[in-house]
Amino acid sequence: MDTPRTIMVSIVVPCYNEAQVLPDFLEALHTHTQSIENAHFEFLFIDDGSNDETDTVLHEAASKDSRIKILSLARNYGHQRALTAGLDHCQGDFAIFMDADLQDPPELIPQIVEKLLEGFDIVHTVRSDRGQDSLPKRVSSSIFYTIMRHWVLPELPLNAGDYKGLNRKAIQGVRNYNERVRFLRGTIATLGFNQCEIPFHRPARLAGKSKYPLFKVLRLARDAVVSNTVIPLRVAIFLGLVCIGLGLITAIALGVAICSTRIEPGLMHTILVAVLLIGGANLLFMGILGEYIKVLMLEVKQRPLYLVQSRFNMDDPDQSAS
Q1: Among 42, 163, 265, 273, which residue's CB has the most CB atoms within a 10 Å radius?
Q2: Whether 280 and 308 share a structural domain
C-alpha cells in the first residue's frame, strides 16, 4: 500500500496591531492544526507596519517554533497588499488566508484542507449570518454584495471575505495578476478552476479594534468597483444624456411658452435648475473619471506593491543568490 504523500500547508496571516489577540490566536492555530494527518505547516505572519507589540509577540513565538515565519513590511501597506506579500512568499502545496482576530475561526482549517485534498482548487468560507456586525456595516455589506454580484463580479460568492484556501495552481494564478489596486477576493473568484464554499458563523472580535472601519470598507468597495468594471462610466454617460435631454425639453418648453405669450421672459429659476442639473452632472463625471485616472496612474507608475524590512525563520533571497 502506498504511503499517503505529506503535504505542506501555509497559513498566511496579515497582522496590523494585533498584539492583544495573537497569543490566543497562536494557541488556537496549534490546537486545530496538530490533528491533521499527513500535513505539516508553516505559519507565515506578515507584520504590516504595526506600531504596537505585534513584532515582539511574533518574534518570541517564532524563537520557540521554527514553523512560525515573520515577514515584516517596511510600513503599513494595507490588508490587501499584506495578503499579496504572504501569497508571494508562502511555500506550501496549499495556502490558507486568514486574519488573526479569531473572527476567521481556526477550527475551519481541517475542513478547508479536506476540501483541497478532495480536489477543489479554491475553498471560500462564507458567513451564514452577520449578526455580530453593526447595523451600518450590515447595510453597507448588503448594498456592496448586491452591486458587485449583479453588475460587477457575478462570480463573487455572497458574504465571502478573505478567509480562503487555495492549492498551488490557484496560488500561481493569483500571482499572475499584477495590478496595483488590489481586490483579492474578486481576483480569486474570477480565476475559474474548481471552487466550493464552506458556511460558518462569524464570532465577535476577541480583542482590539477592527482594522476595517467604515471609511476603509468604502475605500475597498471603491477599489473593487473601479478595478473591475466600467459600469460607473456608462451610468455617467446615461445620466449626462438624461440631463442634456431635460435641458433641451426645458428650452423648447420655454420657447413655446414665450412665443405664445403665456409667460413673460426671464425665467431665472428654471434656468438655474437647468444649470444646476448640468453642472452637477459635470462634477459627477469629473469625479468618476478622476477615480479611473487615479487607477491608471498607479498602474502606469508600476511601483512595488510592498517593501520587506526583515525576515525571521525565512530564507533571504538576496543572501541565497550571492
Answers
A1: 163
A2: no
Question: Residues 6 or more apart from 99 whose CB is under 8 A from it?
Answer: 13, 14, 162, 163
Same domain, 47 and 196: yes
Give the sign of the dihedral formed by CA 258, CA 260, CA 261, CA 263.
negative
- CA 15 from chain centre, in angstroms, equals 15
Residue 135, Cβ density class (10 Å: 0-12 exposed, 13-18 middle, ≥19 buried): exposed
pLDDT digit string, tens, across residues 126-145: 887 765 666 666 676 677 66
Q: Residue 56 and residue 141: Cα distance in Å, rounded?
A: 35
Q: Give yes or no: residues 16 and 111 share one domain.
A: yes
Establish if 77 belongs to a structural domain.
yes
By residue range, what is the domain housing residue 286?
231-301
pLDDT digits (tens, 9 = 90+) for 93-119: 999 999 888 888 899 999 999 999 999
Q: Which helix (H) or strand (E) holds 188?
A: helix 184-189
CATH number of the domain that residue 35 is part of: 3.90.550.10
Q: Distance of CA 204 to CAs 102, 134, 209, 242, 263, Å?
A: 8, 11, 11, 46, 65
What single string gives the DSSP state of each residue in 76-90?
---HHHHHHHHHHH-
6 pLDDT higher than 70: yes
